[in-house]
Design a protein that fits this description.
Radius of gyration: 33 Å
Number of domains: 2
Structural class: alpha+beta
Strand content: 15-25%
Strand order of the largest sheet: 1-2-3-4
Order of helices and strands: EEEEHEEEEHHH
Number of strands: 8
Largest sheet: 4 strands, antiparallel
Shape: elongated
């Protein structure tokens, strides 16, 4: 029986999924419900491949790191099959662990562009209806309360300066308007006095 194969590409990255339909669930002949192999190719990096458990672990780790980045949080992801974290240089360090005891872990270092390309390939896979993978168990479950957590230092350095600038501008504007109105009123009074003096002189 011939296997189905589908690829998902984004700039530096290609994800290839191979497998078979599950005819016991009345699958279409073009579907993949039984994934037999997968391969992730990244430019200038060794190819990544493994079984379905590896694929799910990789997808789950990448999605979680991406979600934490959107929340401006950093957290090292560690599991039996993959470790993933952002280092001080801004690169993503990946350690892929084999289930075979005689195979050494594979260590990779990729940049933000490659990380984004991988996420894009996973998104393509998620939205592709011919490959059946339950993404509900792969998407990160992050405490929503942390989204609104108060960071005192961040508030101090990002909110206070604009407020100070706003109030400073407001004060100067108020002073300028105050002096302008007083000056305008003073000029009107002088004009009235001058007119009165002219009248007096004419009489």
């Amino acid at each position: 029986m011939l296997q189905n194969k589908y690829s998902f590409n984004q700039s530096s990255t290609e994800l290839v999924i191979s497998g078979l339909p599950d005819y016991s669930n009345n699958d279409n002949k073009d579907n993949i419900s039984i994934i037999s192999s997968w391969k992730l190719s990244i430019i200038n990096q060794p190819e990544i491949e493994g079984n379905i458990d590896h694929l799910k672990s990789v997808i789950k780790a990448f999605y979680k790191v991406a979600a934490l980045s959107l929340l401006d949080r950093e957290e090292k992801i560690e599991s039996e099959l993959i470790d993933l974290n952002l280092d001080d240089s801004g690169s993503y360090r990946i350690t892929l662990k084999s289930t075979k005891p005689d195979v050494e872990p594979l260590n990779l270092k990729i940049g933000y562009a490659e990380f984004s390309d991988i996420i894009n390939c996973f998104d393509q896979l998620k939205n592709f209806n011919k490959i059946n993978i339950d993404f509900n168990e792969l998407l990160p479950n992050i405490n929503k309360k942390r989204i609104f957590s108060f960071n005192k230092n961040k508030f101090t350095y990002t909110i206070i300066p604009p407020l100070i600038a706003f109030f400073t501008i407001s004060i100067f504007a108020f002073i300028s308007i105050y002096f302008f109105e007083n000056n305008d009123s003073r000029n009107k009074n002088i004009s009235i006095i001058s007119n009165k003096l002219n009248i007096v002189i004419k009489i």
